[in-house]
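Chain A, query sequence.
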Amino acid sequence: MIGGLGVLAARGWTIARDLAGAFLKSRAGRLAALALLVAFVGWLACRHAYGVGVSDERAARAARDAKAAKVIAHVATAGKAITAEVSHDLEARRVEIRTVTKTLTKEVPVYVTVQSDRACIVPDGFVRLHDAAADGAALPGSASGSVEAPSGIPLSVVGETVVVNYGVAHEWLAEVIAWRAWYVRHADLWKQNIRPPDPASDRSPAG
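Chain A, predicted structure.
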């Protein structure tokens, strides 16, 4: 039985081969074979082009990522240099202001003498007004007590207080100016180096 099946299979293959050969010898067969060959070649070309496109896109993206990493590293390094320079200059300015304040404080007895303390009575109203301004607080609607009454605070103490307060104010002003300059320099650094991402350039082909 198995031997009979083998003979039948051989005969079937021979018949199919003869039929295929006869079909290919016909005009319709040749056209069909040519169409299949063209389709196969086209499929191979499309597959190759797709592979090349994906490879090129991956290479382009890798190049963009490498460039971005280089820019980020540059911005980070330059930003640290800006911060260090601003901090150094600010600290130098603080030392300068504190030195001047300390010197002026020592000069208070020279410019506001004991005789000046005796001659000038600092009124209570002045002290209350000064303290309210220093605290950023409003005064009551009407002054209570006598604003002309002596406060008991010597004029020299007032002078020393003013010197110290101005020294602190100059330090705060120096900080504001320094960190405003820091912000402007960092903003310029980012503006010159960092660009908003282009959504179209970050599209990867599907698959």
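The chain has a mean pLDDT of 79. The chain has one domain: 2-202.
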